[in-house]
Amino acid sequence: MEIFLILVSSILVNNFVLSRFLGICPFLGVSKKVETAVGMGMAVTFVMTLASMITYFVQYYVLEPLGIQFLQTIAFILVIASLVQFVEMVIQKMSPTLYQALGVFLPLITTNCAVLGVAIINIDSNYNLIQTIVNGMGAAIGFTLAIVLFAGIRERLELADVPESFKGFPIALITASLMAIAFLGFTGLV
Amino acid sequence: MSLILNSVISLGAMGLLFGSGLAYASKKFAVEVDPRVEAINEALPGANCGGCGYPGCGGLSNAIVAGEAPVNGCPVGGAETTAKIAEIMGQTAQEGEKTVAKVICNGTCNNAKEKSEYYGINDCRAAALVSGGSKSCQYGCLGLGTCVNVCQFGAITIKDGIANIDKDKCVSCGKCLEVCPKSVIDWVPYSQEVVVECNSEEFGKDVKSKCAVGCIGCGMCAKACPFGAITMEGKLAKIDYTKCTQCMVCTAKCPTKAISGELSKRKKAVIEEDKCVGCTICAKKCPVEAIEGELKQKHSVIEDKCIGCGECAKKCPKDAIKMK
Ligand code: SF4
Ligand code: SF4
Predict the structure, then answer these.
(1) What does this protein do (chain A) (predicted)?
(2) Angle in degrees, CA B239, B240, B243, rounded to 5
(3) Most CB atoms closer than 10 Å: which of A162, B57, B163, B220?
């Protein structure tokens, strides 16, 4: 039950993009087409889940026993950066088109605050391994949900009659904020 | 001390671990890249300006290798780059004529009237928001130089209240076209001298009251053009550059001088006597009957009548006609 709660909370209530405002750059950058948004979401999901898991081990089996928790940030970044590199290689091999579409945003996951954020939040909330993984996955699903929904809306916005001065990013930002308000409605769910 | 040691060792060990993992993965997941892509990437200027229509130089080099883009796809690199890429691809360069950006407005301070004075930030986009800018003609160049600032190649200057583009410096990146709030910049082939320099969609009377050199949509040029290169689109004349021979008949006819072109610089046909065999083909092709001569006799051009359209030179089977 608790695990279910964590999942719901990280997907909807504490949605990383729309209520914690982490990972905004890929959210705005790779959301022009639903297809690439899905790809990005999957890449982030993979990185986030794995990163949650590995950082858990790093925290409790390396940093804490040695009493060097202050190295948390740098150690986590090391983990995430390596993972992203790995994902990049895999995607380039498996799906060159997706690789093309994600372009510069793929290496940018390295510095994606959402990934580092989820790792640190896991530790701060004293989750155990299972909870950590669930929370990481939930956060990633939440991210994917947000970015795919957003991409869907933006695809329609392309066709809509938007006033000249709102075209492009202005209207995208307004849409994003409206989505954030909508997600506010989930507060109190858990 | 042990704290420092611990930190160094643990982070070092982690780095080593991940590093070797990645090294292994990079072998395992190695993607074969066409060496030509690399080579073309080297040859491209690396400006990543996007003028070619691809996200960056990398995108173009991929497209060239895949055969989706021509070897002269890069507008910035010029002939040298094209030659290099062509060599890599094993082709000879197919150098097309470059198209450059041109300001399609001649509403200089003297020609166009102002309707108000604008005191605001020096930016055409801002000025355009204030009831369309200070020019009484709402289609004209505002001359505040937003395009000047955006051009990375120093090709644009403001002269006499309107923008001017130096076509030799223009690399056809298209940044100015995007940024101009009045859309008065358009693509024109490099050698095209004859251009309708007006955008106004208004009625002739209104155009006239606002600008001395606007196109009033009278259609005289369309009627005058011997090659059918001009059509009237709404109240504006449009030249089909592929049909235009730059004879400048329209320039001479236009009552408001809205069509550019310098009549004094117009070329004339010259027949090289020793090559001419008197076939009369040129005389038949000339739209203004500027060539005289009997069959099997040397022909000659009546200079005053020749409009320099080059039709005769194109058709002469002996290659005896030069445009000078
Ligand atoms: S911005 Fe400059 S270089 Fe680019 S198209 Fe315009 S004039 Fe040419
Ligand atoms: S220059 Fe000559 S050919 Fe070209 S549009 Fe004018 S009249 Fe026609």
Answers:
(1) Part of a membrane-bound complex that couples electron transfer with translocation of ions across the membrane.
(2) 120
(3) B163
Q: Per the confidence metrics, is the pTM higher than 0.80? A: no
Give the type of residue at A160.
A
Q: Is the beta carbon of B176 within 6 A of some atom in ligand 2? A: no
Distance of CA B133 to the CA centre of its chain: 26
Give one DSSP letter per residue of B187-236, joined into a string: EEETT----B-----S-HHHHHHHBTT------HHHHH-TT--EEEETTE
Angle between helices B57-65 and B78-89 (to 10 degrees): 40
pLDDT for A104: 66
CA B218 to centroid of ligand 2, rounded, Å: 16
What are the C-alpha distances in Å from A96 to residues A44, A91, A101, A148? 17, 7, 9, 20
Q: Is B52 annotated as a binding residue?
A: yes
Helix (H, G, I), strand (E, B) or coil at A54: helix
B218 labelled binding-site residue: no
ipTM of predicted assembly, 2 dp: 0.72
**Is the Cβ pair A82, B21 closer than 8 Å?**
yes
Contact A93 B31 (CB under 8 A): yes
CA-wise closest residue to B285 among B250, B249, B309, B253: B309
